[in-house]
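Before any further analysis, we paired sequence with structure tokens, yielding the entry below:
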Amino acid sequence: MPQKFNVHIIGCGSALPTNKHLPSCQVVDLRDKLLLLDCGEGAQLAWRKTGLNWQKITHIFLTHAHGDHVFGLPGFLSTMGLLGRTAPLTIHAPSNLQTYVEFMKSHFLPDFDYEIHFEAVDSRVHQCIFEDRSMEVWSLPLQHRVPCCGYLIKEKPGLPHIRREMIDFYQIPTWAINRIKAGEGWQTEDGEFVPHERLTTPPDPVRSYAYCSDTRPVTELAEWCQGIDLMYHEATYADDYADRAETYNHSTARQAATIAKAAQAKRLMIGHFSSRYEDENILLNEARQVFPDTFLANEGLCITP
């Protein structure tokens, strides 16, 4: 069974919270490591509905210094402290958000027992900004009214699967299983050597997810995200407000779909909906005219890339 890789939508509205949508916030659960992507107003209340463990958040990735992406952060960090967090937390964001983070630490979090580290992200460069044994996170330069970057999360390959019938047939002991998965063969008691390839099946395919928040269309995203399993791309407006999208450096649903098509993405999720649309199906329909495998983000949605 593939390892866990889930994307939970906490908020998918734009700047103005409504009764239907909260501002931007998502959490990626990759093998029980939780990454928070943006933290708009109301995030900690909506988080409780997910049932996820607060203490498993290891890294927070902020896209840019606009309130609908960061106003929920002081409460979120404070609640983690009140719940007794001791593990350090790293916040990755464009450098102009460091002052905001330091203000929160000194005014709202001085007595808590966990450290918060700030890692500046160069929003002009596509590069790997974090990795561990299970994933890589790459910055995606976006074009908005302030320095802004999205994030590409790539799962690292796992180990091959050892075939259950081979374990039984050759009576392979438990201590040897991980060594075989790592590439070794097996020597039987009568001297027969069984190669690694006969004992195993290939590892699960790796998966990838791109979080492309507030931005005008960036053609380079198609190259950086080529063949991606799931792309989230803002689609603030429909064609009727294309001029407004251009003025404020946002994208229409059709433009988001055009990027996904050029990237040969497997699926596209659109969000960051303007509050002017009571029915987002107008956005969905326009996107599907270009890229049929498009669906709408929605609070409470959990999707696997």
